[in-house]
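User: Modeling request: complex.
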Amino acid sequence: MARITRADVEHVAELARLALTDDEIERFTEELGAILEHAAQVSSLDTAGVPPTAHPLPLVNVLRPDEVRPGLDRDEVLAQAPAAEDGRFRVPRILGDVP
Amino acid sequence: MTALELAAAVRAGERSAREVVDEHLAAIDARDGELHAFNHVMADSARDAADVVDIAVARGDDPGPLAGVPIALKDNLCTRGVPTTCSSRILDGWRPPYTATVVERVLATGGIPIGKTNLDEFAMGSSTEHSAFGPTRNPRDPSRVPGGSSGGSAAAVAAGFAPLALGSDTGGSIRQPAAFCGVVGVKPTYGAVSRYGLVAFASSLDQIGPFAVTVADAALLFDVIGGPDPLDSTCIASARAPIAESVDDGIEGLRVGLFAELLDGVDADVAGRVHEAAGALRAAGAKVGDTSVPAAAYGLSAYYLIAPAEASSNLARYDGVRYGLRVDGDDAASMNARTRDAGFGAEVKRRIMLGTYALSAGYYDAYYGQAQRVRTLIIRDFDATYRDFDVLLAPTTPTTAFEFGAKTSSPLAMYLSDVCTIPSNLAGHPSMSVPFGTGADGLPVGVQVLAPALGEPVMFRVARAIEQAAPA
Amino acid sequence: MSWEAVIGLEVHAELATATKLFCSCVNEFGAEPNTNVCPVCLGLPGSLPVLNERVVEYALRLGAALHFDVPEQSVFSRKNYFYPDMPKDYQISQYDLPICVDGRLEVDGARIGIERAHMEEDTGKTLHVGGGGRIHEADYSLVDYNRAGVPLMEIVSRPDIRSAEQARAYVTELRAVLDAIGVSDVKMEEGSMRVDANVSVRPSGVEALGTRAEIKNMNSLRSLGRAIEHEVERQIGLLEGGERVVQETRHWNEEDGRTHGMRTKEGSDDYRYFPEPDLVPIAPDAAMRERARASLPELPAARRARLVEQWGITEHDARVLVAVSRLAEYAEAAVDALHEGTAKDVANWCAGDVLAYLNDTGSSPEVLPLAPDGLAELVGLVVDGTLSRNMAKDVLGECLRDGKRPKQVVEERGLAQVSDEGALGRIVDDVLAANAELVAEWRAGDDKVRKKKRGALVGALMQATDRRGNPQLLNRLLDERLG
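Assistant: Request completed. Predicted assembly structure:
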């Protein structure tokens, strides 16, 4: 497995919406490289035909009835909002469209 | 007094809950300045809750099995109207509009939440050094870490601030600090305890569990918090018999396996205590042998792909839009990025990056996909072992509590302290740490008891036997 | 060079359940902002999703209606991306194991393949403030999470559609099916049904697919048709000019009648799908599958065929009756209540005047002021000669406006048609006498002149009878008198 590069780190930071400083990018490239090298040990195990475990419990069909229950009070919710207006959450303008 | 004793005394009217709470608040006042186990002490609401218990007792009502017992809550458990910070700047001051199921259950049985305890930010860490609000100190030796991520909860119990505490365990975050601080810590079977209201780190690994001074007290709290919850799809739907009823049933004839892979490479004094505990179990009638779970050797690698991957997704919601910190930007995306960069500490950023990478196009199969397949292999090897053994014995940690700063310069070195605890999380199996003597440095050593899924009854019985044989 | 359009459609339908997909908040349109929210649909820290059983029921019913395979297990996955209307900054959707695969829909004799249908949660709604409300010129935005967590079915067709017209027909038929099985309100104007189109072109006869563009923001059937037509032309224009079609998402602009490329960032589309760890798989058992099959009502295609056969109406009229939500039910109830008259009569009224009323008022058959048996009454009044057809139209109008019964209106306005031969005969005689010149001109004229003069005499008869003379009778009497 190729070692993670600075460009990889920059790309990943963008996917993860983290505005890293140059310093952080430098450091993370180094640290993530070391961690991934260790983590890549998983590739030395033969897993042909082995299904992945997404859930440790073998549960299926956990459902709830289609019945209304009271939700939250809007004032309580908006009280914690960094910015609100007209009963809505306010954010800076959105450039770029829905991905 | 143990929690059991306290609750009995309060229910019998021999002690007032208010007096018990005041006593513990005084202890916190006296020493938490030094230890910083708490992010937030709930003095007023604790006193109010205590008064409610006392009124009930006076009326002749039964407030419940936790009557008047102060309980410390890890600060990643939602408590309505009370700050829940996850020891992160990004949630500094956030007061949830709702309460976690486990906390509701504590309240419904007369328990008294006394404060929110410090943790590694978003539960990512093994020393509580990654808290945004400063570390917690180990009550047994304040120059040492208490372990993590539930360092605050472990320290609170060890320092006598509360007889009981709740923590969360994703890769060892209850058991490892329990071992470092010399208290009992339990990670339940995945799905045995509702996660509703636990701020998620790694959803398929996280479990909430008790800290206590004694095994019996841990069983008491475990029985209160466990059980079905329609608000958590991954919570087992069937109720189970209380553990407290069978804790003292003894271990005659039980088959105990010494976990080879986890005994390998730990400090000699730690390994020594495990063998000593095994000897005590043998003397008490258990059959002890050696066993192996080969794939467990890859547990650490698989964990450091799976956990960060799930975490990277779980932590995406912290974007400055609806709650918590916001750092302004020219546009929404820039606001998100600046908020997250300012609000998250280095360890959290590292894991988010790691996880995002492991899930990204072109890498998913080799990293996340492969790790989940290795997880299946680990489960299979455990299942094979449990055909021949009822429980496994292992160290909880490779070393005793290390000094501040000893591992912070190398993330990988820090991750290695989870090597003994991680396999249980990957398998979804229960396991617990029981204090058993000290290391060469006089610091506590924890012995880990592992059991198959839903094997809490036998796990607690073995833990009880170990406790009874523990060196003074 | 002749070209072929290749079109695939992605339809999102909001399911008409009482509560949202993963929480017990009300699923309703138009509430005050942020009043139907809870920790789960707000994605608050510590919240967890729990699947609504009725959504699974509806998904299985849709699976049965569109001839889908429903695999043994299906799984939810997280689609990870940042956007302010997404409370968790990931959407819980289905990726590699959707609940329905390999379906189909017959549209005017053509079989359109449907690749998959899956469940996913809807996002919140954003209002853009400043700059004319357009996202790119806005100063800031406001978010309402009432819609966040509303259950959606995403239905993805294969690229089997070959024209804008066929695309409209597909959407119309799909809409009718979803409406018939009762899983969605399917109102494009309310957003409970949304359509995106994937459009490409290729030279006729060539098998390989051309590069496709995804077209969004078509808010009506008409927009859908116009947008696809425009996009096909645009792509042909590019290719004929030696340029390439860029794979991108384009926005349809209703005002300027063109699609516009959107600014997208490089590499921003890596959704990093992985199985949702907070939800367990769905494994529909035999009972669930059987319930889905048993719950299917008569589907539109079958209903149309039956009405054509049983009522002797045209395919066109059958299409109209079935396409308008609940109109066919109304017509059938009216037919059931008939004493005199035919189903065809009822169908004509429904496809004509009743439908016009529905369109004018935006009303729905379920709340028509005239009950189905009232329409049956009206038909009877025409058949027994009480009302002429023209008079009946008028009466119907009043019934629909004022909620009266036809017989009531007839009595109040004294509208009963005169069909007494003796009385009518005397009137004819009077009119002829009063218009002797016209009669003479008729006798003297050729066919053309006779037609004109006869028409004038009919006009005079209408006046003389206050339009209440039975027209067939009048015509006969007139012809007899004229000789």
